[in-house]
């Protein structure tokens, strides 16, 4: 079910949760094949990533394996996107990556989670979208949590944990990430 704050709630032991598990198994099979490839196999990486997300990526798309995902159908990727090695995408809530985005190594984009209350933690999976606007750079080891939009031209510093929207043309850093300064030209 969808909520006004764009949160999707998937109760356990339902047809919807069974479909989610099937998507995870499918994604893991595709990424296992993708992770046997190297930097020199860019064309084949694009073919497998396109299979994963269910739509053709542009020839300018570049991903360096290994790469990990729990879905794929909720991911949209623009032109001239670079994804460095060892990234993890959980796209259950939706993951929109615009043109000219750079994603550093060991970046995690996590749209899903669970309720905080111990009694409900295993009963539901919750998911919120992540939107990464044009010309964003997410540096090494950053984690972006569901419900976040990263504004155009923004930079997320290495190791940051992004839990709130990032304004356009800013550098954010820390845990939780906060605006460090403007980077407007």
UniProtKB/TrEMBL annotation:
It comes from the Bacteria. Its EC number is 2.3.1.-. The keyword Repeat applies. InterPro entries: Hexapep, Hexapep_transf_CS, Hexapeptide_acetyltransf, Trimer_LpxA-like_sf. This is Sugar O-acetyltransferase. Belongs to the transferase hexapeptide repeat family. The keyword Transferase applies. Keywords: Acyltransferase, Repeat, Transferase. GO terms for molecular function: acyltransferase activity. It comes from Mesorhizobium huakuii.
């Amino acid at each position: 079910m969808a909520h006004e704050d764009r949160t999707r709630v998937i109760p356990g032991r339902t047809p919807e949760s069974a479909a989610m598990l099937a998507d995870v198994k499918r994604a893991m099979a595709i990424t296992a094949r993708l992770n046997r490839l190297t930097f020199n196999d860019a064309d084949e990486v694009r073919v497998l990533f396109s299979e994963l997300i269910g739509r053709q990526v542009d020839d300018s798309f570049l991903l360096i394996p290994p790469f990990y995902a729990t879905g794929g159908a909720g991911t949209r990727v623009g032109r001239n996107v670079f994804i460095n090695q060892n990234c993890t995408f959980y796209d259950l809530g939706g993951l929109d990556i615009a043109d000219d985005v750079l994603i550093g190594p060991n970046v995690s984009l996590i749209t899903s989670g669970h309720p905080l209350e111990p009694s409900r933690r295993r009963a539901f999976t919750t998911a919120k979208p992540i939107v990464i606007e044009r010309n964003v750079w997410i540096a090494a080891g950053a984690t972006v949590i569901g419900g976040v939009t990263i504004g155009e031209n923004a930079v997320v510093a290495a190791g940051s944990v992004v839990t709130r929207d990032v304004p356009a043309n800013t550098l954010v850093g820390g845990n939780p990430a906060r605006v460090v300064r403007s980077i407007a030209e």
